[in-house]
Amino acid sequence: MKILHILNGDATAHSFEDTGLEGEVLVWREVLSEGPVEENISAGSFWKNRQNFIAAGFNDTAESYQQKVLNNLARLDEAYDEINLWFEFDLHCQVNLLGVMNYLKQRTDLSSPNIFLICPADYPGKQNFKGMGELNSDELEYLYDNIRVQLSEIDFIIAAEVWAIYVSHDAGTLKEYLSKTEFWGSLHLLKPAMEAHLRRLEVNKDGLNYIEQKLLDIYNYGYKTKPEIHNAFWVTEKIYGMGDLEIDIYLNRLKNKSLINL
Fold first, then answer.
1. Fewest Cβ atoms nearer than 10 Å: which of 32, 47, 97, 189?
2. Is residue 82, in this structure, part of any structural domain at all?
């Protein structure tokens, strides 16, 4: 039986190596919650645009992107009996999950592999659960044994609908979809993530979205260095799942508007 585990990042991969779970491992190293996206995720233009964005915005190189992302992407075209998707509750992970699901739908005969989702919102006994990267191998196996669900055709239909809305960058369409949709299948953490995304699309009277305004408030409160601002943002906004470089995208926008001086 050929099994593939797609992990949400390198932090989870370190502990996953020590689990007793059978199968190959693919670490998903993209940030589809930022930068250019289009509906046809299997198109060459999609990945060329992503490569250019990552190289420019994340101090990376085209060669590194080829190795970390594109070479792994080719493995999804292989035939598997089972694929396990390990993604978390935050917007960063949920958009990556949408990307993976839509890539599989566009490129794979879904009648062949059984596809499962392991997507924790919390963990027993952990008061401030931040993600699977803080779990050890036994705890990852606990998730596998207790919350793993098999994705159905309806889940892939929902993922395609939400992906199409996400790439449109249309706040009105997303707001209407969120208000009218009651059934989310096994994608039970997708709605709160998309609600967080909606706050990014809407702007206030000063032309700032929710994240920009939040960071400006943190700065004006007295946090004047990037590490201080990052930490203050994470305290209340873990729904976005943003790392330092992602937060810096928004800080640079504020800097370019002369609203902060870092």
1. 47
2. yes
